[in-house]
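seq:
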Amino acid sequence: MSNAIANVSKLIQDNDIKFVLLKFTDIKGKEHGVSLPVSLVANDLEDLFEEGKMFDGSSVEGWKAINKADMLLMPIAETAVVDPFARIPTLSIRCSIYDPNTMQSYDRDPRSIATRAENYLKSTGIADSVMFGPEPEFFLFDDVRFSTEMNNVSYRIDDVEAAWNTNRKFEEGNKAYRPLKKGGYCAVAPIDTAHDIRSEMCLLMEEMGLVIEAHHHEVATAGQNEIATRFNSLTLKADETQIYKYIVQNVAVEHGKTACFMPKPFAGDNGSGMHCNMSLSKDGKNVFMGDKYAGLSETALYYIGGIIKHAKALNAFTNPTTNSYKRLVPGFEAPVLLAYSASNRSASIRIPAVTSPKATRVEARFPDPMANPYLCFAALLMAGLDGVINKIHPGDAMDKNLYDLPPEELKDIQRLPRL
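struct:
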């Protein structure tokens, strides 16, 4: 028995686990799961990890046809973690998807795609590993309603923090403490009503293996938040992003809130992005560290060039919804132009300021939290590697406020897609 499987056995015993929840992610980034009673698997754990669990692939959108529906969940022992929300003790294990006829990973399984991207990176010799540090933002709403009927299309959201509630009558009185438009960044109580909710989320994330760096209220009114977690390798960080969303959504429900990862749930204020920080390393050295612009290496510049070249194709993975493009408009700290710059938050690619060259990285600012993290991260890596392999230079950096460029300068700069 491997150490990882032995650890699963120990988790089951130490936590009196009753069910094992096998989780997987579909093309859209939605999580699915099937729960097995421990009495069925505890005595044959090795068989579970070697033989997997059959399921109906035709019921997962974008996968198998009904006449070829059988697919296999292959649990990954290293991902086992106790589910903090299950009333009945449950162990959650993430899975890859296999074709039972070939016993090979399924080519549409997002997690397998992420793993293949990492393996391709190693095969190029450019680097041994890629690190991702995504920054998913989210709203916490008190009320969410929508309708898409034959005779009616509408939506309505509300939150006690919302600026539009300044004149609203509440039973307990209107205390007037709320962030106005663009006034919420790093707000504190009583304006920030979600501090303890975020703290609870952070503690649960730590229980499930994430490393927390900070949490704070974000810029927008109506309850925009961010929890910063430490970077990790591509596939593992995608796993952690799914855990992040799972915890945010479930803690929100426990507090009578709805967590919303839509990029632009309402107009007139900042939307929610998922800025993706990236760096490559080889033999323990940061490959992006150098003596070029903003302390970058030539490899890093080529990596940026690849992302800029392929940005409009990348948007299918990094910004997968119609709502995504309502966020990518000027004036709300969201990028609109395909340019790069140091510390410039109006650029689509930013080079963050660092206190140590070892922390050198590039940040793609256009992705949003509706993206499937496995596909988003893999696509960004492959675009960047194409830039390195084919020496695609991104051109000169743009250190101006890109929202204020005159028409004669704008005409030569490509922009991200828009509605």
